């Protein structure tokens, strides 16, 4: 190895501070594992509550050290809230306020550790405290390049007059030069983007924060690859005039000593024929907010007649998923359908031979995991960024079927049933087309040199950055 630490040593010292959401923390940790595999040392900052869930993913405990950060209470947040999972969507900005208040603690850590590099995504003040200790900064984005290109580039700036909300049409308008006519939002879908430009006291808007984060870093990094999102990455690079490094999908590979699937799911899944079970999961945050939509999801899966396992957070207004289930549902699906409100080992479930279909909310982490799996995919995105990921998979890559929605954004049990049957039904033309395209992409993405090539190039980019 060359001499690439700023102190002349052969390894780099890195601090990571991701946004307080599991989808982001797990993505940062997967990248940490790849860098630790190459001998670099990482101090990983995270809230105490996240530690138990994230620790098992650390494959290099001697090189990746967790450092817990106290997340202060901010008026309006539920007591003890430390991560996105503890906070309803409409209060997420308060979690960002709480994260900002951790700045003095993080500053002390940087002064003590004097790292070569600091990775962050939401804490846009990192460059201000990293520069004085001689560290270079990388704004690492764990969401799709398409969703950044559509809303979080300087050209997407919107003029908001006297705090007036923008119309759906204004919100849906792609910025000048945006490179796709397929990966876009319908006006009604674009309403979910209003949070991007809305101003909040003390922290400004989400847009301001992200643009500052990307303008002030030394390099922008994105968890994606040229093969799927090259044109969006080029657009971001031209908008920010900053180098854009790509890490590739950064998924954990099968480790010889990896833990096995919890027996309760392994035993349950083993009862069914290969490829017959529908697995439905909606990520680490509560996303299906309305109880009647939650019930429609359950009823749609029931109507498929297939065995199914759902891992989902309860909707608003109830504290458990059981309370939200439709009348008589549990009795009707007993033995073939389970709805579970806790954490499951998603990648291992997707890998299970009995599972043949993944109904996903299209979080970016889930998107990569589903592309690498051999499950058929049904897309039920909820928010702007997830909808764009869905368009990328359904319209550009043609590897999945997106559920049809009514004018008001609602999906019916029938549309979900139809979507699942269209990919699972024997002899279905659509099912065959998406399977064929998905097989091709899986071959490209799971080629042994593919992910390693991205990581090696990324490591070289970091080395050059530290030396510059
Ligand atoms: C309802 C509001 O939620 C709050 O945050 C929303 C979530 O933001 C996710 O991150 C992104 C979302 C979107 C999006 O929905 C549409 C887009 O076109 C772009 C993005 O970008 C990002 C993003 C991009 C780059 C980056 O480095 C990021 O860290 C994120 C995030 O994944 C999720 O955890 C959040 O819950 C919002 O704060 C607001 O205040 C709420 O009202
Ligand atoms: O029960 C669960 C739920 C989730 N997971 C894992 O947690 C991760 C969830 O990440 P996702 O990106 O799919 O979704 P999240 O909703 O949690 O993430 C969030 O940040 C990333 C954005 O793209 C998403 O839109 C946003 O909601 C996946 O790696 C998934 O395998 C589990 O292992 N078990």
Automatic annotation (TrEMBL):
Record key words, sorted: Glycosyltransferase, Transferase
InterPro entries: UDP-glycosyltransf_plant, UDP_glucos_trans, UDP_glycos_trans_CS
EC numbers on record: 2.4.1.-
Pfam families: UDPGT (PF00201)
Gene3D superfamilies: Glycogen Phosphorylase B
Keyword Transferase: yes
Signal peptide: none
Transmembrane segments: none
Enzymatic class: transferase
Keyword Cell wall biogenesis/degradation: no
GO molecular function terms listed in the Swiss-Prot or TrEMBL record: UDP-glucosyltransferase activity
Family indicated by similarity: Belongs to the UDP-glycosyltransferase family.
Record protein name field: Glycosyltransferase
Source organism of the structure: Brassica campestris (Field mustard)
């Amino acid at each position: 190895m060359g001499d690439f630490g700023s102190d002349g040593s052969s390894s780099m010292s890195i601090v990571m501070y991701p946004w307080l959401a599991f989808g982001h923390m797990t993505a940062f940790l997967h990248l940490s594992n790849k860098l630790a595999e190459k001998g670099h040392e990482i101090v990983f900052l995270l809230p105490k509550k996240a530690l138990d869930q994230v620790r098992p993913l650390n494959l290099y405990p001697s090189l990746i050290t967790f450092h817990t950060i106290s997340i202060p209470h901010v008026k309006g947040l539920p007591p003890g809230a430390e991560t996105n999972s503890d906070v309803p969507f409409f209060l997420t900005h308060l979690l960002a306020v709480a994260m900002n208040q951790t700045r003095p603690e993080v500053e002390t850590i940087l002064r003590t550790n004097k790292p070569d590099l600091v990775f962050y995504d939401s804490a846009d003040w990192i460059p201000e405290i990293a520069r004085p200790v001689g560290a270079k900064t990388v704004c690492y984005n764990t969401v799709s390049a398409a969703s950044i290109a559509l809303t979080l580039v300087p050209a997407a700036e919107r003029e908001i007059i006297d705090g007036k909300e923008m119309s759906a049409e204004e919100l849906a308008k792609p910025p000048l030069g945006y490179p796709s006519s397929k990966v876009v939002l319908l006006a009604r879908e674009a309403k979910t983007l209003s949070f991007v430009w809305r101003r909040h006291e003390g922290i400004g808007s989400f847009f301001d924060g992200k643009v500052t984060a990307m303008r002030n870093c030394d390099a922008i990094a994105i968890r994606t690859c040229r093969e799927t999102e090259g044109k969006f990455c080029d657009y971001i690079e031209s908008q920010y005039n900053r180098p854009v490094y790509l890490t590739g999908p950064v998924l954990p590979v099968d480790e010889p000593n990896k833990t096995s699937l919890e027996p309760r799911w392994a035993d349950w899944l083993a009862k069914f024929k290969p490829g017959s079970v529908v697995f439905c999961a909606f990520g680490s945050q509560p996303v299906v907010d309305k109880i009647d939509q939650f019930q429609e999801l359950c009823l749609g899966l029931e109507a498929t007649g297939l065995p199914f396992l759902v891992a989902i957070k309860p909707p608003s207004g109830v504290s458990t998923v059981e309370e939200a289930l439709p009348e008589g549902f549990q009795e009707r699906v007993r033995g073939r359908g389970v709805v579970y409100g806790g954490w499951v080992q998603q990648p291992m479930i997707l890998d299970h031979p009995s599972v043949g279909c993944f109904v996903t909310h299209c979080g970016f982490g889930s998107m990569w995991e589903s592309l690498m799996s051999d499950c058929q995919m049904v897309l039920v995105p909820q928010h702007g960024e997830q909808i764009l990921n869905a368009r990328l998979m359904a319209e550009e890559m043609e590897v999945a079927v997106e559920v049809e929605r009514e004018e008001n954004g609602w999906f019916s049990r029938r549309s979900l049933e139809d979507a699942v049957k269209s990919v699972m039904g024997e002899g279905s033309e659509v099912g065959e087309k998406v399977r064929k395209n998905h097989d091709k992409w899986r071959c490209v993405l799971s080629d042994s040199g593919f992910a390693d090539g991205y990581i090696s190039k990324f490591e070289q980019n970091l080395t050059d950055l530290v030396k510059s």
